[in-house]
Write a structure and sequence with these properties.
434 Repressor (Amino-terminal Domain), mainly alpha, 4 helices, 0% strand, 90 residues, globular
């Protein structure tokens, strides 16, 4: 769990919100963007642009690595109140 006082789950609708979540988690860990980038094996520029919501194309594996570095998880949920999908197409 993250050491800062935010809701355990935040709904992300755009890249700026994702960047805000990354920045908050990174700052809560008291690490710089450069250190976070090094730990994630990404460039400091990519980290900075992602935090600012300016990087439009970040691979999912890269993004997951960045999120993992600062203790964030990706959780996917449906916006609809429908029965859960079983994985079988009908």
């Amino acid at each position: 769990m993250l050491p800062y006082q935010h809701d355990p789950a935040v709904v992300i609708h755009d890249l700026e919100q994702l960047g805000t979540a990354l920045r908050g988690a990174r700052r809560a860990l008291s690490i710089t963007q450069i250190d976070a980038a090094l730990l994630s094996n990404v460039s400091p520029r990519l980290w900075n642009e992602t935090e600012l919501g300016k990087r439009r194309h970040v691979g999912l594996e890269t993004l997951l690595r960045m999120m993992n570095t600062v203790g964030l998880d990706l959780v996917v949920s449906s916006r609809h109140n429908t029965p859960s999908h079983t994985g079988h197409d009908t």
